[in-house]
Amino acid sequence: MKLEIRGLTKRFGSFTANDGIDLTIEPGEIHCLLGENGAGKSTLMNMLYGLLDPTEGEIVVDGVPVSFSSPGDAIEAGIGMVHQHFMLVPVFTVAENVMLGREQTRGLGVLNRRKASHLVRELSERFHLAVDPDAMVEDLPVGVQQRVEIIKALSNDAKVLILDEPTAVLTPQEIDELMEIMRELKAQGTSIIFITHKLREVRAVGDRISVIRRGKVVGTAAPTASEAELAEMMVGREVSLRVTKEAASVGKPVLEVRDVTVIDPRGHQVVKNVSFEARAGEVLGIAGVQGNGQTELIKSLLGLVRPDAGQILLEGRDISRHGPRQSLEDGIGYIPEDRSHDGYVGGFSVRENLILDLYRHEEFSRGGALRLDEIRANAEARIAEFDIRTESASTPVSALSGGNQQKVVVAREFSRPLKVLIASQPTRGVDVGSIEFIHKRIVSERDKGTAVIIVSTELDEVYALSDRIAVMYDGRIVATVDPDLPREDIGLLMAGATTDEESTAR
Amino acid sequence: MSDLEKGPEPREPRRGTPHDPDAEHVDVLDPDAVGGEDAAKQVQASMAAADRPGGPLDLSVYLPTAKVTAGAILIALVIGAVLIAISDDGVIESLSYFTSYPWDFFTRSGDAIWSAYSALVRGSVGSGAAISTTLERSAPLICAGLSVALAFRAGLFNIGGQGQLTIGALCAGYVGFTWDLPSGVHVVAAALAGILGGAVWGGIVGLLKARTGAHEVITTIMFNYIAVAVLTYALSKDAFQRPGSDNPQSLPVADSARLPEIFGVHIGVLLAFLAAGLVWWILERSTLGFELRAVGANADASRTAGMSIPKVYTLAMLLAGALAGLASLSGVLGRGDSLSLSVVGSTGFDAITVALLGRATPLGTVLAGLLFGAMSVGGGAMEAAGTPRELTDVLQALIVLFVAAPALVKGLMRVKESGGGATVMAKGWGS
């Protein structure tokens, strides 16, 4: 199936989200869509999947113009989509999930599970997906759940498969597997639209690359283009992808974590006897696939979660019983992994968010009354210093782009003297330009002598910033390694491979 | 309740900032005020919201915009006009010969509507006495509305105004008719007792929520029942019951415990306005208000920023209860009502409406309280002019109904939807 997009335009009021986009997806090609956040990739895909009506332009399938008023129409036309957040029912089996919405019955409303199972098995074998139709979805690893989504789309006879940031949740090994599957699909004639902002992946698997910036296709590139070229197209200016940093001048341990164990509300040990130390003037990277205890570990460091065993020492003092407020006062800076959830108050203005954990200081309040002039001045200074792109200081943070929201959080945490900086996914969902900026600030914080802990599921980020890397798997730190270890080896550790030589963990 | 955020379609793009009564920036949702950039940001914002299943519940989605409120009032008045016309005997009579003299129908309808609405206006604000009555009727609505609004801003739905008012009235009344104090001191003591009673009743709910996570909607409703039961019990005891009476009714408070008058109205009116100013100051200018609003809008981020959620919940409910206690003074200490089972009327429930209509801001609550107070007073005058006074209840109900269904108002007013596509944005689009 050949899918053409001709002059597709979408306006919201006077704002043009997509401006005359032309794209052609040839049968059996992997077409990568590269663009920063807010570039208009989502709007484009929403139109393609029948969720939005185009203002102008048309979608043409095999030479015939079509119009989709709902995802049902798009599916009918052979377009399938795998969302970034899976749309699966965890307590159903794979087969049940696949037949969901168009259940086949054997009369009297009895579900024909066998037929669904059969279909899943068939597709799984044909595309080498290795999915067991009778497995419960909640028991499956994320990578396999994603394949269930792919099967769901394929079972609808999708000829064009849209994959929305599919690698965000995967381990390096799972990413390799996914790419293998993509190649297999392609070989059997399915076209793939692969949305991502990761340059490495685009180059590894794409046949053609279309770069979108500010709602327009700014160019196409071959997978042979260099990462720097692609980044430049994406951002519109030259970007430095490497973090330039001096060798760390490591001081004494600032934060010592000793045998910390955290048990989650369901009674599972999510952090198991973790010990490490973060030293002044050094970046310690904690690598690991999402959901291996990093979240809980980090929360316990700030006091959001109380460790069930073990000690956390800040400059030799036990702070494991402290709440977040005390920890913040003690000089711990904290950039949470989910900024919209834990990092800012969406309805609050930029100005208010910039003092969200500073308002109680003498500087910003006196006798229970906020000092508006000081708060205003602080906002102006931070906005300038961190180049936060906002209409005004009183604009609600929820109206900012992801990168600028993150800058608000980062600016706030960097606006007081820190002993330890804990940054979890500091650049998640942030555009390339802002990533560069945030990384620079983190390194300069390190150079001021702060002990920095970076938690990231992005190996690139861990590599770029860290002076030492601790790898977490299944609630444990399985190894602490130098950043010159090859990616593959760290990838293996992240996937739980046990090593003899690198287990110098402590 | 967080399902509200996870609905198949984000129902309304979320409103920008309900926390800004002085409207420093335009309502981000106002379609006419949105420039191009804003529209894009809005879309991003609404996508970010949809993107986050199970995010903290933002009560502000229930608040109407100023435009919707104005539209709701207008539409309610129009429907009210139709009701007035068809409930008028002369109009109905003219229908029987409509085809011969259609003009009769229209003049009679016009007369009926005019006389009813003009009576409504005259009765509520048409004279000095009417204005005084309106102000006195509005005072408890404003105070109790502030109670609901304040809790709302902290993310708490205070359905317990009724119970807090009841306990407030009980305490104020008890001090008012049993203690024997010099006049200046007596009224202060009685007022403080009422405020304190309400504060304790609300504070317990806050404490329960803070300590155990008990949902305030459920506990406040239960505390309403308990408060009524406490009042019923008290009124059967010698300490409260009017001597020589079998009715569950107390004596009125002593004259020394009555609220003094100022500018022809009891001082409760002034207190209500002062309370509104105080609540505004707390919300917008104090660190407590900062915490309160932050917790109300995003409890997780607030906790991460080092705020104590239990402290905020407890204090918010304590203050809300105190405001409800203040509202209870109008009856027992203002009008001099004796304690009975109907001593607080339905003020505690009307307050929820007032606060929602006022967008949970102090100024809005004052305006909504005045409106409802005026309608309630004007209803009496309207009845004298031949229209059932229940019509004002219908009007109030219609206003609230339309406020609660903004899409309906927008449809009726033909207000263009903003952005067109923002409401159908898919979930799960991170980029």
TrEMBL record, chain A:
The keyword Electron transport does not apply. SUPFAM superfamilies: P-loop containing nucleoside triphosphate hydrolases. Residues 3-239, 255-499 form the ABC transporter domain. GO terms for molecular function: ATP binding. Signal peptide: none annotated. The keyword ATP-binding applies. Gene3D superfamilies: P-loop containing nucleotide triphosphate hydrolases (3.40.50.300). CDD domains: ABC_Carb_Monos_I, ABC_Carb_Monos_II. Keywords: ATP-binding, Nucleotide-binding. InterPro entries: AAA+_ATPase, ABC_carbohydrate_import_ATPase, ABC_transporter-like_ATP-bd, ABC_transporter-like_CS, P-loop_NTPase. PANTHER family: CARBOHYDRATE TRANSPORT ATP-BINDING PROTEIN MG119-RELATED, GUANOSINE IMPORT ATP-BINDING PROTEIN NUPO. This is ABC transporter ATP-binding protein. It comes from Nocardioides marinquilinus.
TrEMBL record, chain B:
Residues 1-28 have a biased composition (Basic and acidic residues). Residues 1-30 are annotated as: Disordered. The keyword Nucleotide-binding does not apply. It is a multi-pass membrane protein. It is found in: Cell membrane. It comes from the Bacteria. Keywords: Cell membrane, Membrane, Transmembrane, Transmembrane helix. Pfam families: BPD_transp_2. The chain crosses the membrane at residues 68-86, 156-177, 183-205, 217-235, 262-283, 312-333, 339-357, 364-382, 394-413. This is ABC transporter permease. It comes from Nocardioides marinquilinus. The lineage of its organism: Bacteria, Bacillati, Actinomycetota, Actinomycetes, Propionibacteriales.
